[in-house]
Design brief:
Helix 2 links the parallel strand 2 and strand 3. The two termini are 32 Å apart. It is globular, with a radius of gyration of 23 Å. The longest helix has 21 residues. It is α/β, with parallel strands linked by helices and 395 residues long. 35% of the residues lie in helices and 18% in strands.
């Protein structure tokens, strides 16, 4: 049965139901510049009989001052107002202190890293919070408009390519000048998920010669459609798994892939790596030996740094220089493009709220596969099976 706050029957009997309030606190994680709702989505929610409380300054660094929220109809005030709402929406993983501010029965929506943040899973359950992880939304057609993993990965892929172009110290397109002709940069993108495909498209638009690689054969056609040349390793069986992700390779398969990529890497000026498997260490694709084969001045941007890295020499959040090759592992690229990253994320959140709210009241239908799939904790329990396994393993 759906879980509700108030009922329509009560309304018919004359009880006035208070409008549901959604709170938008200011992000506390260092370096986080995004905001969970922007004024446009606030205006839309208010039109659906939902009240919105925004902590003062929550959208400032994303390009949305308090005045814009007030004009959109939100109440702008203290952090207590935002954290006291029936539904709290965030971007980054909540801290222990922030979870302590929540009360039993509240709803929390945000990035919760349920497969790797066991302590967060347990703390939310113990607090009696009903939590929904944006990254746990099922990858089905009906849920595409709520898919924050994809929207933020698209931002990361774009930003990674611009970062690589800046750090490479060379033109991406071919340039013909009176001083001679400069050949276009050679860029290889590893992983053709959303981030990788965006990186391929962006590098191609900048004029580079682009090669794309993925162990899922269905991705080869996507790479080609964006103007890239697929690096086709026919000796590896198709490795697409459930949900469109890649399955883990055997160690023998991994070794063959690494050898082939090392051979391809020495011809590249830039490598952008994006390969990740949810809840697992990122696959190692570029070995130290492969780095040593690359020309000095080459650049590697590793987007998998927060899950171990696709490059053996990656240090998360740092820039490493090895034999003249720069290896960058930025951890906050979507946050660095906070305006558009927030715009996309806020729309994802609004679309999820449309599923959770009916006639201005919370109506959680756990028979719905999106609601059930995204729910991490409810009623004092960890409801998501994989999150429960992660919490149990950590304990």
């Amino acid at each position: 049965m759906p879980a509700t706050i108030g009922t329509r029957a009560e309304a018919r009997l004359g009880y006035a139901l208070a409008a549901l309030r959604v709170g938008v606190p200011k992000e506390s994680r260092e370096g986080e510049r995004r905001v969970a709702l922007i004024p446009d989505t606030v205006r839309s929610l208010i039109g659906k009989e939902v009240e919105v409380a925004v902590e003062s300054g929550a959208g400032e660094v994303a390009g949305h001052p308090d005045a814009e929220y007030a004009e959109a109809g939100a109440s702008v005030g203290s952090d207590d107002d935002a954290w006291g709402a029936e539904v709290v929406v965030k971007v980054a993983l909540p801290t222990t202190h922030e979870i302590g501010r929540l009360r039993s029965g509240q709803v929390l929506i945000g990035h919760l890293a349920p497969l790797t943040s066991a302590e967060t899973n347990r703390a939310l359950a113990e607090a009696g919070v009903t939590s929904f992880a944006m990254e746990a939304i099922p990858r089905i057609t009906r849920a595409q408009a709520m898919d924050a993993l994809s929207s933020q990965a698209s931002v990361a892929g774009y930003a990674a390519t611009l970062l690589a172009a800046r750090e490479a110290g060379r033109f991406f397109p071919m340039m013909t000048t009176a001083a001679g002709t400069v050949a276009p940069a050679k860029v290889m993108v590893l992983g053709a998920g959303v981030a990788g495909l965006q990186a391929i498209a962006t590098a191609k638009r900048l004029g580079a010669m682009v090669t794309g690689f993925d162990i899922r054969r269905a991705a080869w056609e996507q790479i080609a459609s964006l103007g890239g040349r697929p690096l086709e390793l026919d000796f590896i069986p198709d490795a697409e798994a459930e949900g469109g992700y890649a399955r883990p390779l055997t160690e023998e398969e991994n070794e063959s892939v690494r050898e082939a990529l090392a051979e391809a890497a020495k011809r590249q000026d830039v490598i952008i790596t994006t390969a990740q498997v949810p809840g697992r260490r990122a696959p190692l694709l570029i070995t130290a030996d492969a780095v040593h084969r690359m020309s000095p001045g080459s650049v590697i941007v590793d987007l998998a740094g927060d899950s171990g890295g696709n490059c053996e020499l990656t240090k998360p959040g740092e820039t490493v220089v090895e034999d003249g090759v720069k290896i960058l592992a930025p951890l906050d690229l979507p946050s660095q493009m906070a305006t558009h990253a927030s715009q996309l994320y806020a729309k994802n959140v609004e679309n999820l709220l449309d599923l959770l709210v009916s006639d201005g009241q919370l109506n959680l239908d756990f028979e719905d596969e999106i609601v059930a799939g995204a729910c991490i904790t409810h009623g004092g329990e960890i409801k998501n099976e994989r999150a429960r396994e992660a919490a149990g393993a950590a304990a």
